[in-house]
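Design a sequence for this backbone.
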């Protein structure tokens, strides 16, 4: 959907063609992004929302929301199920090791403490915090949460995540007349939101080291 929005107006295909290609692409990319963090899924959802904002077809925004939240949920559940299999396996699994490698020890300890105090609420918030999803997921795995319990917390988390990034896209789309301008604004905003927390943590960590 992103590349369709950025195409020149003279070659943009009909909305029905864009939707037939765009929704399956959005679903697949968000699903892959939930399993392997190489796809900027938040930026994808925001960009799709920009394009949907400029469409005249009914229920376009609702379809983007449903597609993104369902793909995120299925991706998370697949990764958690694979992690659970690794926890019960004698030799573990590469998926479990991949989850562990993406969860620094300090973030994991924080997630475990918050999970013990606030339970499912932490799982819901983890998807809204940059780099917060994997440490909380690993904390749930180490706490031996059943798949059904994780699913009950993950469902509202994915809905809140999709709604948040869709709202970012709508805000970007409402500021510009051309969809591609809104896409660029939405992508820039999501990148800033994802980078600022990690930069702040590094600055705070450097300040602590300097004081000690």
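Sequence:
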């Amino acid at each position: 959907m992103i590349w369709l929005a950025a195409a020149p107006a003279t070659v943009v295909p009909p909305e029905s063609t864009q939707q037939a290609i765009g929704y399956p692409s959005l679903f697949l990319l968000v699903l892959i992004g939930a399993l392997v963090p190489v796809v900027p899924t938040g930026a994808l959802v925001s960009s799709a929302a920009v394009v949907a904002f400029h469409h005249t077809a009914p229920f376009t925004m609702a379809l983007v929301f449903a597609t993104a939240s369902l793909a995120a949920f299925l991706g998370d559940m697949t990764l958690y199920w694979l992690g659970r299999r690794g926890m019960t396996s004698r030799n573990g699994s590469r998926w479990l090791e991949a989850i562990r490698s993406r969860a620094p020890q300090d973030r994991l300890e924080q997630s475990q403490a918050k999970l013990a105090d606030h339970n499912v609420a932490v799982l819901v918030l983890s998807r809204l915090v940059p780099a917060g999803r994997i440490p909380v997921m690993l904390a749930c795995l180490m706490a031996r949460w059943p798949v059904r319990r994780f699913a009950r917390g993950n469902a509202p988390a994915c809905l809140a995540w999709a709604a948040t990034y869709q709202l970012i896209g709508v805000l970007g789309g409402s500021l510009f007349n051309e969809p591609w301008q809104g896409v660029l604004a939405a992508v820039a905003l999501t990148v800033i939101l994802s980078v600022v927390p990690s930069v702040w943590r590094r600055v705070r960590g450097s300040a602590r080291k300097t004081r000690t």
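Residues 1-12 have pLDDT under 50 and may be disordered.
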